[in-house]
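Hi V.,

You were right to ask for the full record rather than a summary. Here it is.
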Amino acid sequence: MADSPLELVTIVSQDFQENTFVARLRPRTDCVVLDPGMEPEQIEDYLQRAGLVPAAILLTHGHADHIAGCGQLKHRWPQCPIVIGRGDSLKLEDATKNLSALFGFFVTSPPADHLVQHGDVYSAAGFDFHVLEVPGHSAGHVVYLWKGQRPFVAFVGDVIFAGSVGRTDFPDGDAEQLIRHIHGTLFTLPDDTVLYPGHGPATTVGYEKRYNPFARL
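Predicted structure:
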């Protein structure tokens, strides 16, 4: 919406085409960084050019392509907390659990400063994010829902994409669980809720309910 205070910038890491989101509420100069990916120098450069200071690093889950930038950002802004779902926290410091070892490189992150779970509200940079647990792609995967404007905005990580859903063939994946939670959690949100996934373009709840062939029960 043209009159919305929300400013949202997407920074794509080329290796996995992973979306990092930087969100702020104008005219504030603090922001949140969601899922910092494999090219943290791009994120740091943008924050410096825009004159923004991260108030939190929010992680939807602990897979390597979503956490690889945490170390560099935490080094630059040591007071900025790393936030992740309780069920995925061990992935941060373990290259096997976060799957980077599987792909032949070894990524780790500093440990979490704050753990969240379903029903929590995490506040930073003027945002109040409602935490929704949606396991299946990863056991501790969470979604961050912001209800500060209509339509609502949800950062959904690798739960659902435009026309697809997240992989479930990793060690703690579960296809049945993922689809059940998509329907029981995401698809209960208003149809116009905008979904910002970890890969690919944004979509809406209503569109995916109608047209996503992988999200059917």
